[in-house]
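Reminder: ligand-aware prediction takes two inputs, not one.
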Amino acid sequence: MLVAPSVLSADFGNLQRDVESICEAGCDLVHVDVMDGHFVPNLTIGPVVVSAIAACATKPLDIHLMVENNTFFVELFAPLKPEYISFHIEEEKHPHRLIQKIRSLGIKPAIVLNPHTPPESIEYLLGDLDMVLLMSVNPGFGGQSFIESVIPKAMKLSEMRNRINPNCLIEVDGGVSDKNIHMLKDAGVDIVVAGSYVFNHANKKEAIKSLQI
Ligand code: DX5
Ligand code: ZN
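Here is what comes back for the chain with D-xylitol-5-phosphate:
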């Protein structure tokens, strides 16, 4: 299991220190939550702050867009060369076109599904994706509780992925901790995002290790 700590739970007054600390603690990716105050009822960071994160991160960036007008934000963040850019299927009229655009910029494309969105909705896109991100909370805030219905959903998606595109990874985001990591692993999940669990832990290295099962 790969671990992508969410910078949303970092201390923004000490952002460089916190980004360096998760990278030194052995995380696999750095998860960056971009919210626009329209698609979700919260507003986070733009390219100025994300480029500061990119400058001190020694692990690849995993940018999670929670925005309207995805194409605009893809173009804004592409120069930072993240490993992944993921966008919500609920907010995109032309997901296939946007996947091709992200790939043409040298970035791995990923799609995010909100808790209510069925995995079947992306069946005909799966072959073109490098990752699918399943939300296990309603997007917008860190520190919420894990929605258990993501487990059967991940199992269903994992079966689809094995059939259509075995190289496509499955990521889960929201309320992840040592309490649900084994269930997620058994369901076929490859990457977890963890914000409050990692940043509230007294020892970030131990927290990350406990999820890398
Ligand atoms: C929620 C974000 C998550 C969140 C995870 O909209 O996408 O990445 O910060 O935080 P925790 O692990 O605290 O649920
Ligand atoms: Zn996220």
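Residues 2-211 form a domain with the TIM Barrel fold (CATH 3.20.20.70). The chain has eight helices and eight strands. We will return to this case in the review session.
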